[in-house]
Design goal:
Blueprint lengths: L6 H26 L5 H19 L1 H18 L9 H53 L4 H16 L3 E7 L5 E8 L7 H10 L3 E3 L3 E8 L2 E9 L9 H65 L6 H25 L2 H6 L1 H11 L4 E6 L6 H20 L6 E8 L2 E8 L11 H12 L3 E5 L6 E8 L16
Parallel strand pairs: 6-7
Antiparallel strand pairs: 1-2, 1-5, 3-4, 4-5, 7-8, 8-10, 9-10
């Protein structure tokens, strides 16, 4: 309670308390002088001063204690002293010194407490920022980061609410995260003021908004509110570090989304080029060769050139078979027509080594995912046959946690890694372009296991706008 009183007024009260305590102590000492032994009485006075120190602090205790000791010395212990001008001068000097020392001690104590509190708050802020930075570094989804930042801001500021709002291009707003009480809501005037000025703003000292700027562009705002009390004057400054983390998270999410999109476009373009080659081979060269083969077979009835024409027809059919195999290698028709399971089984049938296929899929997957998984299995199988001297290969595919899991294992020589050539590295790029991961485990002499995970939707979410993506 006393800490709420201004310091100058506390000093004045302490001086008055010293004078009053001297008068009270003088009367008590006069009455008790002939009835109580000096030592127990001195102990009693010390206990009283100690209780005052515990209750009111050093600023009040020093003048009161000084007055009590002077009264005990002057009016209890002989020789007794009369209150003369010299006595009043000594009393005023002692009380003034006590008040000065108490004031200095109080000021330094309060500064020490404030510094310790600030140090504790700084440590809490640093720990909070480290937790959030770790989430960003781990590549967590923007929504998880938004929720975490909002909770951390509310806990740090001890506000009733904390909200993260995104500005849309059509003038509307979207609340991405909220922590605390359902009321009060973010005042529309605060949302408009931050949007119009791009600066920190307040409304009635109970709501504060801080802009979130991403890549030099106003993206949204952080708002904290209090239902009853006013927010501290340093609220905006304490929120700034958190808004910078939000901006970093949004920029990181946008960069990752753009990177994945660009890589996906590259892969899609490569796949489309393969399909175009396949169509050109099928509709162009193959059709002409088939027609030529039919004509030659018809001409084979000519007895004079029957043997030669028959031989040419056989050679042409061989070329046609080779073209079919080539087009199948570029983009197998069974993959487009029937899906991943039949394509992997057809791949196993053509393999020179035994292949055990276990595909547990209830429905067709998106085409980019099926194509990516097929090429992983095809490339790894080719490596197992050509380089690993494998005797058996296992291919397993299933859906788990909204992702396709593909595992290809061989019992070959092992020792495969991404630095051994462009094959595995190309597969890794292809899978990462789909938002997935590819890992290789290949101890020397113990075979090779390639596992990949491909989310059925980008970042494991349903189709739609990314929370961190600004329209």
């Amino acid at each position: 309670m006393l800490s709420r009183i201004p310091l100058p007024l506390q000093v004045a009260i302490a001086a008055i308390a010293g004078v009053l305590s001297f008068e009270v102590s003088r009367a008590v000492c006069t009455l008790a002088r002939d009835n109580i032994h000096p030592i127990p009485f001195a102990v009693l006075l010390l206990v009283v001063v100690l209780l005052l120190a515990r209750a009111f602090g050093i600023l009040f205790t020093l003048p009161v204690g000084t007055a009590v000791i002077l009264a005990y010395d002057w009016f209890y212990l002989p020789p007794l002293r009369d209150l003369s001008e010299a006595a009043y001068t000594v009393l005023a000097t002692f009380l003034g010194m006590a008040v000065i020392v108490g004031t200095v001690a109080t000021v330094f104590a309060r500064r020490a407490v404030a510094a310790e509190r600030a140090s504790g708050q700084m440590a809490e802020v640093q720990a909070s920022l480290r937790r959030l930075a770790l989430l960003i570094a781990k590549g967590e989804q923007p929504q998880r980061i938004f929720d975490a930042v909002t909770r951390e801001v509310r806990d740090h500021l001890h506000s009733d609410t904390a909200n993260l709002v995104r500005y849309e291009l059509d003038g509307s707003t979207t609340e991405l995260a909220c922590a605390g009480l359902p009321v009060p809501e973010v005042p529309p005037a605060l949302i408009k003021q931050v949007r119009d000025t791009g600066r920190m703003s307040r409304v009635d000292s109970t709501a504060v908004g801080v802009p979130v700027v991403v890549n030099g562009r106003l993206w949204g705002m952080f708002a904290v509110g209090s239902a009853e009390s006013q927010l501290p004057a340093d609220t905006e400054a304490r929120m700034s570090e958190y808004t910078e983390l939000v901006a970093t998270s949004v920029a990181d999410a946008q960069s990752r989304a753009e990177l994945i999109s660009s890589r996906a476009r590259i892969v899609a373009a490569a796949d489309e080029a393969r399909r175009r080659i396949e169509r050109d081979l099928h509709d162009g060269a193959q059709q002409r060769l088939v027609a030529l083969a039919l004509r030659l077979r018809t001409a084979a009835h000519n007895a004079e050139k029957a043997d030669e024409v028959s031989e040419i027809g056989t050679d042409l059919m061989t070329v046609i078979d080779e073209l079919r195999e080539l087009s199948r290698g570029i983009h197998p028709a069974v993959l487009s027509d029937s899906g991943l399971r039949p394509a992997l089984r057809a791949l196993a049938r053509r393999s020179p080594v035994p292949v055990e296929v276990d595909v547990r899929l209830d429905e067709r997957l998106p085409q980019p995912i099926e194509v990516g998984a097929y090429y992983v299995a095809s490339e790894v199988l080719t490596n197992a046959v050509k380089h690993a001297c494998a005797t058996v290969v296992e291919i397993e595919a299933y859906v788990e946690d909204s992702s396709l899991r593909l595992r290809v294992h061989d019992d070959g020589t092992g020792g495969a890694d991404f630095s051994g050539g462009t094959g595995l590295l190309g597969l890794k790029d292809r899978i990462e372009a789909l938002g997935g991961t590819l890992d290789v485990t290949s101890p020397v002499g113990e075979g090779t296991t390639v596992t990949c995970r491909i989310p059925l939707q980008p970042h494991g979410r349903k189709p739609g706008r990314d929370p961190g993506e600004h329209q």
